[in-house]
Amino acid sequence: MLxxxxxxxxxxxxxxxxxxxxxxxxxxxxxxxxxxxxxxxNVGGRNKVPMADLREVxxxxxxxxxxxxxxxGNVLFSTAETDTAKLxxxxxxxxxxxFGIWSSVVxxxxxxxxxxxxxxxxxxxxxxxxxxxxxxNGQPPNDLLDRITDAxxxxxxxxxxxxxxxxxxxxxxxxPDGYGTSELAQSLFKIVSPPxxxxxxxxxxxxxxxxxASKLLSLCGEQP
Length: 224
Known about the structure:
Number of strands: 8
Strand order of the largest sheet: 2-3-1-4
Oligomer: single chain
Helix content: 25-40%
CATH topology of the largest domain: Alpha-Beta Plaits
Number of domains: 2
């Protein structure tokens, strides 16, 4: 059994107080307004995208203050556009046009990212690399949640301590015995992330460990 039903939403704390792993959820006027998360680039020698070129592509769309973090496709930028679906679609098309590859993109506003981090259902885990967030571009449908519940139950039946919870447009995966050997992690990503060649899926998903996700929120405050 799951520690709580996978559909149970974990409510964020009131306001933007300091959160788990020492994250400060406050913000100031210098922050980037949005974060774009690309799926499946620079992984295993495939879909290579130089970060300098990626910054050029994002800037070409009229966004400002464009920066990237590590090589896995994390872009911070500012824009007056508030429709994240529209922003993601434009980025997907521009990336395909420039690099000839398809990478699904999830875009979150700064406050949406802060909200996802504030909902952490595993705040007692001291190692931020043992908690992963699967960012989604929409509410996961019931049939997908049912499949995730089945996968989690199967893992528990084998003695696994791994757990997964859903809250809003995110899934939270806790792998206390290690992420790399987690059968639940493998099953989860097969369920929510079918092969990248299947373009324009109704539900886009991309995962980041908690260390990366929290760093992105921190970097929002360092934008010019």
